[in-house]
Design a protein that fits this description.
Layout (H helix, E strand, L loop, with lengths): L1 H18 L4 H5 L1 E9 L5 E2 L1 H14 L3 E11 L4 E11 L7 E13 L2 E13 L11 H15 L7 E6 L2 E6 L3 E7 L2 E6 L3 E4 L3 H5 L6 E5 L2 E4 L3 E5 L2 E4 L3 E4 L5 H24 L2
Length: 273
Amino acid sequence: MENAELLTKITKEIMHDYFKGNPETWFQYLDPRCVFVATGETILSGIENIKHELQSHLKKGRGNILSDEYFHIPLSKKVTVVIAYTISESKEENNLQVVNIISFVWQMKGKEPKIVYEHASYRFYEEEQKNTILPFKTEQSHFQIAKHLLMGNPKKKRLCFLHGNKTIYLDTSMLLYIEGNRHTSLLHCIDNTYTCTQSLQELKKELPEDFYQIHRSYIIHVDYLVSVCCYEAELIGGITIPIPANKYRQVKMDLEKLSNKSLKKRKTVTDKK
């Protein structure tokens, strides 16, 4: 608990310094492999990419924090989620008030806490939302994604394929989904997109059990699934994949089973730590 309270205090310091125009406090705690996901924006991976994005936002002006609250959720002995819930005044939108919800996933690396995953969402503040503070429900899927990606995840075999004149050995935990196009495929990862000459069906044979063919042209990584609704599957980062209407019910049932199986498997691994 003491550790969680300290991380909450550091998170508050990060937010206040950032809104004052100083991102260095934030930068010093970033893990080299940190992943940053913001609603409606490109997924960022690695310190330099995240730094560039945060600095570009600062140039536009961040306004002032009008109110803020912080909540922590321990995921394991070494991992804690801290949620920063702030209301700020936007300089870009004629001083309209903006709700910022940023989840920081902290992991102890030796004796040092590092930010290994971040998820940010923003919306304009409405007075009737004043007493609706906790964002836990909307953030829950991202806790599970962070838990899968950055802790307690058993090593998976690498996927080997040709990308141009290079042979790529891809860690499948970084793979979001695969898009098939006749005899070639696009592999969409957290930090890159690869083209390979293997078909979707050829790649499917090499994938672990937590991948699912949701459509004749798409295979998704179930651990990055956020929701299923209106004949679409939403993945982390707001990515939507179509589901055929005639298979929607079966696909929804299959994904539910796979998601539950994956969660149980990760819980078992985490409990051993």
